[in-house]
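User: Teach me something about this protein's shape.
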Amino acid sequence: MPAIPSYVEAVFIATVLLTLWLFIKSAKNKTIVTIICIGWLVITGVLAYKGFFKDTSSLPPHFLFAVAPPLLTIILLFVTHTGRKFINNIDLRTITLLSIVRIPVEMVLYWLFLGKGVPELMTFSGRNFDIFSGITALLVYFICFRGSAVTNKSLLLIWNFICLLLLLNIVINAVLSLPFSFQQFAFDQPNIAVLYFPFTWLPSFIVMVVLFSHLVAISRLTKK
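Assistant: First, the predicted structure itself:
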């Protein structure tokens, strides 16, 4: 991977920490969430630093171990009684505000594109419109909440659906740009940055937390 300026890594790590802080802040049982999240960041960080995810020839790809555990955890949270209880205690205001992390993420992706770490289609100059979610998060936060009460449920629900679709759009494009056997896009410049430390934390942590935040909000807002 070409050399990436140190400020890109600094901004990205700061974004990871902001995501972690907001996610912990949104949860009722902060101790357990803190332990699990930091443990996961340490595990994936060490593996990425040692080059574990750079192996693109193994089956299944090593990269699968960066995304499968959090995806499985999200599923378990929604299908178990304990998980549903955890979901119902999450602060919707904070989980909405969490989407502001998508603004620095988009900047990092653009810098990585300039450094030949990701394809242009993963940036806001390509097919990635996810920066809309980050820009509008603060606005939606102030419009849809008064104290702890939701004052505009319809707008909040629509916004979450739109942001979820935008997230899925970039995730699909990013996955199909990975240098694996199923690659469909960006053969001239594949998505390699996420295989390296610290950028592995983008798919293994930030994307998973943001995905979870929208699923939680949609679930809570459609619950009778």
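Now, about its shape. Residues 112 and 118 are 6 Å apart (CA to CA). The longest strand covers residues 145-146. If you'd like, I can walk through any region in more detail.
User: That's plenty for now, thanks!
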